[in-house]
## 1
Amino acid sequence: MQAASITWTGTSGDGLWETAGNWSNNAVPTTSDDVTISGTVTTTLSSGQTANFNSLTIGDGTNATALILTGNIGTGGSITLANRGTLIQNNTTQQIITGTLTIQSGGVLKHSANSTAQSYVVNLKAATIDLQSGGAVNVDGLGYAAGTAGSGGYGPGGGGYIKASRAGGGGHGGNGAHGGTGATSESGGGIDGDGGVAYCDVTDVATIGSGGGATASVTGTGNGGGLVILEATGTATISGTLSAKGLAAGSATIGGGAGGGIKLT
């Protein structure tokens, strides 16, 4: 079959990839189709559904365009994220394409925000990866959530807290910092303001960062960083930004989030 050019129209109004009426030919894209999603839209591939395409372009360079992958890529050739185009992985399954992943300037690859469990990561395998200058794979603050008012941070290395005075930072690759001065402990988490303990296997990065704690009077903003796993069977060219930062603490009453993880193969 010859490749057909298929564009997103969103005519059916449900925002779902798997709805035939949302596409220019009134049919869900197949493995032979060159697919374009553009305009100020968010398209979702639902759980249990499969996205097939010869090529997929997200974004038109002007409008904010996003595709959320809750389901998985079936047979995919190449993916291009144009300026203001965003691909959001909403699961942890490795997504495989046979061609090139291109992230142009202003394009973003990320995953959904985790909370109390590791439910979302970026995990993608391609023949070639081309992260261009100005493009980004960014999972800052998308790891375990920080504690809410008067609780420790979430994750195996969640930061601890003391009810009214201080909160510890989240741990991941290393122990989190203690939330107060004059303390001797820098690990342990719990309810004493300690930083969370380290748990990342730095030889095979596969986990997200833990959140910081929060005192009773302050809701924390210190979420941990997320996780990026990228595999190129051929060449990976990294000229853009790879980032998995934890969110910073605003004061001693909020623990900062631990950095996440980045694994390139």
## 2
Amino acid sequence: MTWTGKLAVVIAALLLVGAGRAEALTLQPVGSGFASPIYVTSDPGNPDRLFVVERGGAIQLIENGEVRPFASISSRVSTDGEGGLLSIALSPDFASSGRYFVYYTGKEQSPAEIHVAELVGTSSTPRNLLTIPHPNQDNHYGGQLQFGPEGNLFIATGDGGGVNDAEQNAQDLSSLLGKLLRINPNPSGSAPYTVPAGNPFAASPAPYDTIWSYGLRNPFRFSFDRLGGDLWIGDVGQDDWEEVDFAAAPAVGIGANYGWSCREGNESNPTSDPACGSAGPFVDPIFQYPNPAQGCAIIGGYVARGPGLGDLWGRYLYGDLCSGNIRSFALVNPGLTDRYEGASVGSLNSFGEDSCGRLYAVSGDGPVYRIDGPQAGNCAAAEAAPPLSASFVGIRALRRKVLRHKRTLITAWVSPCKGRRGDPVTLWRGRQRMGTRRLDRVCTVRFRPKINRRSRFRATAKADETYAAAISRKLTVKVKKRRPRG
């Protein structure tokens, strides 16, 4: 570990002092007796119907306090190494179609291949969408499925295992490992899925046209903020750092390179991958913590948007497999706002979220818990909340033509202003995040980026309890030629 890494460990330890919250969360058991549960989710149309995924391949339904079998693909699932049935995602039209999607490792090969498949109702015969080879190692399978805000299916895969990405997959755009993929799960002609418009590598041959972002080690759990649509990835580290990667809506990380194996966290990593010589730019994690000082494997969670969670609302909830501690941080200054939430889960395997935003924690030893805040979680009240109001982000430059290597003043403003003072606004150059500022008393922020070439900027404002997220028009700033002297 470098001296900067050791310093960060000391700082992290100091930040833990007094980091607990005044009102600790409580864990309410909603079911027990499961065989190695590894994920939980709900019916998109009924938050009181919970589906618990067991690693061995069975799916259990909790409804009206009763646990009963729903479906099983156990005959197809290999649990060697870190494999198994790792997650499911219910289609947004599940109530009418009965469709849901499974991520599992199969028995056909050893080490097991990854399968993403569709099931309908209680059927045990899946329709295979993707088969992803995973040779030589039986760890780092990734494992999360989530429907994105725009309705497409996102898939997180690990790098193929070993030390320092031994298979050199994460930076390789001709491998589906170490990636976040995006597909429309509906067939297209003879293909079992459709490649959505806008995928950043759509010109690549199939199946590499499904890649959305890359440079991930083992993104075991990721999620989308149900309010604003932002993407949050818990990427399991190697020796030094556990990290959380973040991508703001509406772009949610399109084409992003999160750096592995060239970097672990935001520090360089010794690797033999020749791609690191020309790779980049890399997207820094929004948050990281030291391994093993504070844990061993991050369990990514969700932005708390459910009812009754008090001041946890709007914070990102996460945990760690080894410590079991449930923690959270705010989007602004995450390192300084990170805190222990007063609750721990032994053998913490996953978090889950139901369709009204209540959060859950899964113990690999059997229990599944609902995470309760200081008030009762009233889904009826949450469903009756008024819709978010539209807002507008404007953007302008003091000068639209600037000498090379000079700076220009860019002003962004948000309307309506009522209730927005102090809210964050982010400036983007293409897909690169240039910085975040807080709105002043007239709901204005200012940035001074350096202009090295023709640049296109946008400004984004996040959603809050009242206003929907908003994005500005494109603003183009050009390089002005110097006048000859004489």
## 3
Amino acid sequence: FANGVEWFATEKINVHNASALNWGAAENQVDHIARLTAILKTHPAFTARAVQRFIMTADGNFVGLLRHTG
């Protein structure tokens, strides 16, 4: 995650040379990020009281995590 505005950029992100990013583009993820932020702030499964445990049902290159309110 370089700068937070690299979605839909038309060129490879070069953090050290600060290449142009997709600032102000009509197509962006601002609404999606706002929605995700609202969910993380308000949903009980993302509070300090939430219970988390890994779910492993098979071998593979993946991980499952169960989060619930207890």
## 4
Amino acid sequence: MRVVILTVCLVASTAHADDLFVGAGETYETIQDALDAATSGDVLTVRAGTYAESIRTRADGITLQGEGEVLVQTEGRVLRIDHDDILVDGMIFDGEYGDADAVTIEGSLVTLRNVEIRRASRDCVDIRGAVRDIRIEESEIHHCLWSTEPNCSSGDCRDDAHGVVADQVAGLALVNTEIHAFSGDALQLNGRDQPTLWNDIDIDGCTFWLEPLPEAEGGFAAGVVPGEDAIDTKTPDDIEGPGRLRVHNTVVFGLRNGLFENISAFNMKENVEVLFDRVTVYDTGIAFRLRGAGGRPRGAQATLRNVVVYDVDRAIRYEDNIEPVVLQNITLGAEIERFFQQASAPDDVVQSTNVLVLSDALPDEATGASNLAVGADAFVDAAGDNYRLAEGSPAVDQGETVAAVTNDRDGMPRPSGSRYDIGAYERCEDCAMDAGVDDGRADAGGRADAGGRADAGTARDDGSAGDAGVPDEGGSGCGCSAAGAEAWWPALFLLSLRRRRR
């Protein structure tokens, strides 16, 4: 009897879930009509086509998915999510540079998957209020541009339009997502003057980049680099606990020579506890700008592991009586004008272990016994910005054990020899990795591979969770197949997106 009752209950609980279809000849010709009719558990499938409408959710527990190429466009806000447990999958949202955020999220348990969000004259994605568990994955966010005058080419007419902005979110994940062409930050965590603090932010496998605009766009003149930082953090004045942020396997490039002074890849200020692990920064003004309390409970508390930096004006700027800055197994490569910049900060706050520097001498901040200055022949191809260790490199088996650093920039386990290697890469003699696969260069769409570097080109479609202080587990053994797969699959993914988009 109990089994029969349970079966009836299960049927009753799912009986209301329906499949709703949108498109020419379907029950619903507009997406909003289907959203108005949907109830919790329903799946809305939108047939391929262009839908000129602004849409918003009406119920919790809805899946909204595109079939083929689905473009939703309107001048201003395109999508508003006011409810919980929402999945949006496989759609393009184009704000046509209208005077509003393109996508707003005010519900919890929201996932945006395989979406493209573009052409907003405010923020492309605005996550509002004390929501939780927001995830953006396998997506592209671009052309978030705000100018107060046409053909803007100075800082006086530039205003902030962010790729993603959040103020109080608890649990935000950006995974395998590309953000570019923004006039604010790729990601701004703007907790200032908020009653609660954002927390548990996880950035994994992402690429954030800028370049001079190839043509006039979004109110900016051709040739302008409009944006500020890849990630910028702000916290309230009166909350003691830090906001926790983890940035993993992520690449930043092209943030240089813009309209904003002190343009940075990572502008970590105020009360934030941040772990950078397997991160590459190049072609940028300041790679890491780490800032002190500034009158707030604490300043940034930053740890850099398996980080590669090259071709920047300043690699690490530390300022305003910053907390100790922890550097573990990082590589500072070629074309760095200044390795460290001390600005109103005390001496001896940089704690460096296994730091490898392409230089004749170590900088003062990295003079410990486990750090090493080397020539270009220590690397596989320094001229090509491949900073893996060459055979016979003096950095091999010369580092100290750092228990928290369990893998290297490619994800290989440490140590692979008798001792830790110095720098971001662990040399493994028996590995079959193709050194050219993930040397830091990405495909033409800007999506970087596991090693870091990306080309500046992009597909322009205008017409168209871990805690911050917890290290990741390394792979087992010395095989490099996992790292190799991680290197090439983003390129294939981006190509599939391009085939789908206009």
